[in-house]
Amino acid sequence: LNTYGNHFIEKIINKDLKNQVYRKLRTRFPPEPNGYLHIGHAKSIYLNFYLAKKFNGYFYLRFDDTNPIKEKISYVKAIKKDLKWLGCMWDGTEKYTSSYFNYLYKYAIELINKGLAYVDKLKKNEIKKYRGTLIKPGINSPYRNQTIEENLLLFEKMKRGDFPEGNACLRAKIDMKSSFIIMRDPVLYRIIFSNHHQTRNAWCIYPTYDFAHCISDAIEHITHSLCTLEFQDNRRLYDWILNNISIKYRPKQYEFSKLNVEYSVLSKRKLKTIIEKKIVDNWDDPRLLTISGLKRRGYTPEAIKNFCMKIGVTKQENSVQLSLLESCIRSDLNVRAPRAMAILDPIKVIIYNMPDSQKEIITIPNHPNNKKMGTRKSIFSKEIYIDRSDFNEKPSKNNIKLSHGIFIRLRYAYVITVTKIKKNNFGKIICLICKYDKNTFRKNPINYRVSGVIHWIAKENVLNAIFNIYYPLFKIKKPDLEKTCLPFINNNSLVQKKGIVEKSIILNSKKNFYQFERVGYFCIDKDSLEKLQKKNHIITFNRIVTLKERKSN
Ligand code: ATP
Ligand code: MG
Ligand code: MG
User: Fold this and answer.
1) Quick one: which of 196, 388, 452, 494 could link to 68 by a disulfide (CB 3.0–4.6 Å)?
2) Which residues form a coiled coil (predicted)?
C-alpha cells in the first residue's frame, strides 16, 4: 500500500487534515446498480478504500439508485459480492440514495420556496433545444416565471402522479446564459412510473444524479467526494445546490481520470450490448474486464489491487495496456500457483525399450523455488503423451523439439529419442515410438547432448480436459471510443481445445489455479468446479494468462 500514495488527491487530503478542515476522513464508492462492476470501478474502489484506511477514516458504499428503470436488486447483490471479493469491505451497512428521498424532496421544496427552482412543462426535446450549445446561449423556458405558489402546487401534483411521464420536471433556476451548459437550469426531478427495488411505489418523481449526489454526500458527512473527470463541470452545480439549501455540511468534489484498458470496453451500456447480443455469455464471461469476469478468468484480488496501485491516480486520460494487467496476475501466480503438466494437443508416445509392467512412481516438486508447496506423486510408464507441437518430423538446426536423432528430456524423468513414426491412412501422425535411456533419470548422459526439455503425462495419469483459450474481445485498441463497438469484435476470442492434465494434481490440490509448465496459467472454470464430483464430467480450464508476454499486442 505504501508505494501507491502521494498522488494529487492524497496531497489535498494531507493538507486538509493538517489544517483541521476535517477531523475524520470519509470517502464513498457510489455505484449505480445498473450493471456489474468492472476494472474501472476497481480503480475508484481502491482509491477510496485505500485513503480511508490510510488516514484511519471511513469508507462507505452507497448505491446511487435514482433511476428505477435501469436498476435491479440483482445488481445490488452482485456489486456487494464483488466488493467483498476484492477485499474492500465498506464501513457500516451499505447506504442507498433512495433512503434519502424524503430529505431530497424537502430540499427541493426549499429551493422552490427560495425562488430557485420551478416546474417546467416543456418536453424533453424542447428543454434540450432551449438549452443552447457551447456557442449558442440558452433561452428561458416560458414556465420559468411562475410564482412560488404555482411551483409548489405543480411539484405537489408531480409527486401525486397527476402528470404523465415527460410532461413536467423540476428545474433549478440558475442562468440560461451560463458558459457552463450544466448551469443552464438543470433538471432536479423527473417523473418515472416504475417500481423501485428499494422504495417500491412510494415515489413517482426521482431526483437526478446532480441533485441527489451532493446532498447524499453531505448527509453522510463525506469529506472528499471523488469522481471521474467528466463530472468536472458538474462540480459547479454540486456546490451551487449545497450553497442554496440549509444543509450545513460541505463535502468537496475532486475529479480524477477514468481507467480505459486497450482492446476492451468498460462502459456499462456497451457491456450490456455485447451480453444482449450473446457475443459473450454473461457479466462474468472471462473475456470481460468485469470483476466477476476477471474472477472467473482466474484473476486474484491481489493482482487487481496491484494493477490499481501501478496505474496510480492522475488527471490524464489514457488507455492502459492489457499487458500491464496481465503482468500483474502473472507475477502473482508465478509465486503462488502450483506447477503441473497439461497437454493441449496430445500425441501418444510408446517407449519400446521399457517393459510393459514397469510403472515408476516419481516425486515432483509443486513449485521449483518453493519447497513449502510440497511434492506430488506421478507415474512414468511405457505409454505416455506429449504435445504434438513438441515433435518435429524433420529435425532442424537449434532443435529443441523431439525428432529423429534429437535427444529430449522428459521433465523430471528420462531422456528419450524417436525411432519410428506411426501414421494413419490420412497421413496424420498418431504415435511416436521412442527409446529411453534408463541411466538418465534426472541426470545428464555423458556421451551425447540433450537438446531440450518437454512435459509429458503417463497414460495411467491421464485426465481428459477442455481448455478455454482466451484472446482479446476486440480487434482495435480503443473500442470504448467508438459509438458502437460491435463491428470491432474479434470473432476468435475463445478457442476451445481438448487435451489432458495430470490426474494426480487435480484430485489432490485445493488450489484452483495452476501453472501448466510451458503452457500457461490456468484455473478450473466456475461451472466445472461445481460439477467436479459428478460422474463423466470433463473438467474445464480457463487460461488466465500466457507464461510470457504475447508479442502480438
Ligand atoms: P458507466 O458509464 O460504465 O455506466 P458510471 O460511472 O456511470 O460508469 P457508476 O456505477 O456510476 O458507473 O460508477 C461508480 C463510481 O465508479 C463512480 O464514482 C465513477 O466515477 C467510478 N468509475 C466508473 N467507471 C470508471 C472508470 N472507468 N475508471 C475509474 N472510475 C470509474
Ligand atoms: Mg452510468
Ligand atoms: Mg454514474
Assistant:
1) 196
2) none
